[in-house]
What we know:
Blueprint: H1 7-24, E1 30-34, E2 39-42, H2 55-60, E3 64-67, E4 74-77, E5 81-87, H3 90-93, H4 97-115, E6 120-122, E7 125-130, E8 133-143, E9 146-154, H5 159-162, H6 177-181, H7 187-201
Parallel strand pairs: 2-3
Antiparallel strand pairs: 1-5, 2-4, 5-9, 6-7, 7-8, 8-9
Amino acid sequence: MLGCVDFDALQVLQESALQEIRQQQTEQGVLFVCEHPPLITVGREGSHSQLTGSNQEFKAGQIEVRWINRGGGALFHLPGQLAVYPIFPLKQMGLGIHDYQARLEQSMINMAAEQGVEAKTQPGAAGIFGRCGQFAFVGAAIKSWISYYGLYINVSPDMKLMRLIDSNPYDHRLTSLSATLTREASMSSVRESITRQLALQFGYDQTHFFTRHPLLHKIKKKVYVHS
């Protein structure tokens, strides 16, 4: 449970955890849960056409664009969006790629139900949908049969900023849990629920929680406004 964390620092932390898990050769996993300052990442299925905002808009908002090795297309990360990174040894757990993704999706569906949102998947889309549109995304990657990257859940981000990208080939509307509920969704409740649901789906009955890591420095949250 790491608060607001710089994206690059979290990448370094993921790589460190991945190497440690690879050496251990056990079923032990690590889950990083945080938020990020504004940043756009573009996965393997992404393209420049998904960046609908102009270079001037990105520069004015001090928003960087990164091309990274995960599944999916362009995603906008910002405070109010919960980023969840499971570093799980899939080989030791006996899980294939499709099983892994299905359990990620079911964890988010169960989490949404606990928040009062009826949710489901859509054919051909890596994410979760409610009555108002898509509020969660799967952007997973696997190295040496260990998972990294993972889930992004729009709890209560500034949805105006989200319009600077168009990552949806099926014209699905982007939304948030707060918009779907028509009230402010609780970040702490979503954070607790998705963590518990992932532990259940992946068979982890013993968990330990930490709110800091020596390799990371938290970033003070700011309010970002796009007009």
